[in-house]
């Protein structure tokens, strides 16, 4: 009845509908996923963060040879692909493994970048962003999934 759905034959007018408060971003995303309203990888905050950080990460020829540049680009694309595969996966264990594999790809990008580090301030800033923001976001998501799985197992 509160939302205009119920046993009553007439729906309440717009003036009679109570205002509802909307949850914060993470709660909203989880509820949308569970209710089936919106099921898109773009709703995953980790994906948005990865898109911002990895999307801005460009590997110049000056940072190394062409093989290294190609390898870094492939790792970047693989990390994004695995995020999508994990998001659309249904089994929690498989989902977690795909997110973890994506995190490993990002870790490989970080290690290769440090190994071939140039003094370019833009590159250093993006590398710090991967280390300080992106990798902890992966860890937080995977830990949250672990806690959720443990909770379901105990029920």
Tell me about this structure.
The protein has 155 residues and is an all-alpha fold. The protein has one domain. Helices cover 66% and strands 0% of the residues. It is elongated. 14% of the residues are buried.
Radius of gyration: 21 Å
Total number of domains:
1
User: What sort of overall outline do the alpha carbons produce when their principal axes are compared?
Assistant: elongated
SSE succession: HHHHH
Number of strands: 0
Please bin the fraction of helical residues: 55-70%
Instruction: Give the end-to-end Cα distance, rounded to a whole number of Å.
Output: 32 Å
Largest sheet: number of strands, sense, barrel closure: none
Beta-strand residue percentage = under 5%
What is the typical, i.e. mean, pLDDT? 78
- Total helix count? 5
Structural class: mainly alpha
Low-confidence parts lasting 5 or more residues at pLDDT below 50?
11-33
């Amino acid at each position: 009845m509160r939302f205009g759905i119920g046993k009553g034959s007439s729906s309440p007018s717009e003036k009679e509908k109570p205002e509802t408060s909307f949850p914060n971003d993470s709660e909203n995303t989880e509820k949308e996923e569970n209710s089936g309203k919106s099921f898109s990888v773009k709703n995953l905050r980790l994906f948005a963060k990865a898109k911002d950080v990895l999307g801005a990460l460009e590997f110049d020829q000056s940072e190394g040879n062409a093989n290294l540049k190609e390898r870094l680009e492939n790792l970047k694309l693989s990390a994004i692909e695995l995020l999508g595969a994990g998001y659309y996966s249904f089994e929690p264990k498989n989902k977690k493994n795909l997110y973890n594999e994506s995190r490993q790809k990002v870790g490989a990008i970080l290690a290769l970048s440090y190994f071939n580090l140039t003094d370019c301030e833009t590159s250093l800033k993006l590398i710090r962003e991967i280390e300080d923001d992106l990798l902890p976001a992966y860890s937080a998501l995977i830990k949250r999934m672990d806690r959720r799985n443990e909770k379901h197992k105990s029920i």
